[in-house]
Design goal:
single chain, mainly alpha, two-stranded antiparallel sheet, 20 helices, globular
Length: 495
Amino acid sequence: MRLVEHLPALLVVVPLMAAPVCFVMRRPVAAWGISLLVSWSCLAMAVGLLALVMQGGPISYLLGGWAAPWGIEYRVDALDAFVLVIVAAIGAIVALAAKRSVEHEIPEERRYLFYAMFLLCLCGLLGMAITGDAFNLFVFLEISSLSTYVLVGLGRDRRALTAAFRYLVIGTIGATFYVIGIGLAYMMTGTLNMADLAVRLPDVAHTTTVQAALAFLVIGIGIKMAAFPLHLWLPNAYAYAPSISTAFLAGTATKVSVYVFLRVVLGMFGGTGLLKAAAVPDLLMVIALIGMFVGSAVAIWQADLKRSFAYSSVAQIGYILFGVSLLSTTGLAAGIVHLFNHALMKTAIFLALTAVFMRTGSVRIDALAGIGRRMPLTMVAFLVAGLSLIGVPLTVGFVSKWYLIQAAVEAGVWPAAVLVLLSSLLAVVYVWRVVEVAWFHKATEATMKVTEAPLTVVVPTWVLCAAVVWFGLDATGTMAVARTAASFLSQGIAP
């Protein structure tokens, strides 16, 4: 049997097997080399799967030869493949920049732990995006979550341990809600295969058990994707984690959780009619719009830039959920493409902040006075990603907001389209204040001694910035994938 036929399994098995190797070796440089090789191999496999799916349609891989729904099925359609590419790409780019950042922020005796947990987290995130079994998804969710708690707790600041513990408590609550919801759905249908659940749930949708299952799943997944107001774990986790951990998690963790929301809530319950009966789309739209403004407004007043852009992520999740709430092909496509676009620009921003922290030891805004002239490559990269976050033309951020506004107008909710535009003005404020301090304030004695960050960090940052501009100039490829995924999802939603 050809190797390409086993790509769905290899995407999960390779990082899963490599993680304990890094742990046993306990050699940081070797562990970094393994993580670099594995992450780029996963990217190659993810791109290959996306090409296969776009050419020949969904791929089904049966573990152990057991036919679905009795056995565990890995299923890859356009949405799955797109998310796999997002996660693998961010993992590969972050792995390039990891070595110098890890050496700067993590004690030598614990560096191998970072790479082991990085690979375990990568495995969990890829597994969540590829499995077609609802309980298997929970297993991968826990693999990624447990490794994420360690990635956060490795920070030098003692508050990293508090942030990790808080994340653990809230994350466990979210996972518990998820598994209760899946248990209730299983009680009524007798299956855990997500495609089979989508077929069987409409027949029992009138029961209180299924309605409770939907409620538990919406809340549980909402906690994991840091949707407003369930985002309380996010700011501290991003602020106190090692900078490279923050860059990786910002580009992947919440994006995969949004994918889970799409796959579980829309894919499994879309045909039941419960979403519209329970006013879930309306509730999502309200939460999304509030999240856009609250996240951006709070970001303006943060002195710590990692915390500031953590709140910015809450706002960006709002944009994605706004597109989803419209339940139209255009709206879903806009939300799905923003998964990709936001992963690019937010990872670029956090990599730029990683470079700043390496040279200044701080990412507080008052420590950046005049740093633009001392670290021009880093700060110009930050500016490019920041402009995309605002939604300036020729960047991916503009593409996302253009399609979101188009979807809102098509749905007849033009006041919401106006609110999307207004919320973008808040992004101008928290991005511009960094630019102002970095370029127009006089350098302090400390920043006068600062030099440009290592190329091993700057180059990956600019690779992402180049992608931000490239896919902003030509979004035909990403939108084609997003529209294919959106069409498949919208077909299963009851009118």
